[in-house]
Amino acid sequence: MKIIYRKYPEHISSIFVVIAALFVCSLMIANITVNRLVTFGGLVFNGDLFLFPLTYIFGDILTEVYGYKRSRLVIWIGFLANILMALYFTMLLKLPYPAEFTDNNAFVKVLGSTPIIVFASITAFFFGEYVNSATMSILKIKTKGKYLWMRTIGSTLVGQLVDTVIFMTIALNYLPPAVLLQIIVVQYGVKVAYEILATPLTYAIIKKLKNVEKLDTYDYGVKYTPFAFDVDKDKK
Q1: Alpha carbons within 13 A on the beta-carbon side of 30
Q2: Predicted TM-score (pTM) of this structure
């Protein structure tokens, strides 16, 4: 039976909400664990290395199936959630605590840097995820929906480069320049490789979602501005 796809989303489905929740959850965990450095083969990595690239995969899926505007909405939800997290951590660490509580320094060490990390994440995401989503959307129109692999990888090459450079420069500015540059190069290379290796899975998820949702969104007439919250088709 031939499936007829709608050009634009008519409502926010439960599947969309689940993907959005996973996106926000991954982003928040990544922001908390990014300062935990790990080493593999003599190379230094951030603790978010294995989780943060998932946010870009989720972003590709959201843009491809639900459109740029829905993807932009989820990005802003992630921003607001992380701001709330940072504000709460900041307030909590300033509150008095009983003498019996001897682990306060550990909490300060782990959670005290979160506001800086969130600021770096918001700044990087403002440019990185916006560029990724917009590139994905524009390429879909240019290719008439073909070459999904080129669109997912191409948008990641641009978006992750912008995101990684901005985030690392702000969040890890205390590191020696040589170490910082090494982390940026390695992180970027691994994130892009992550996206390439995940392409078959991304294909399968997108295909399944399009069939289930009966939806394949093309962003004709959409204004690519990050400063908006509407999710309906732009009116002529």
Answers
A1: 26
A2: 0.84
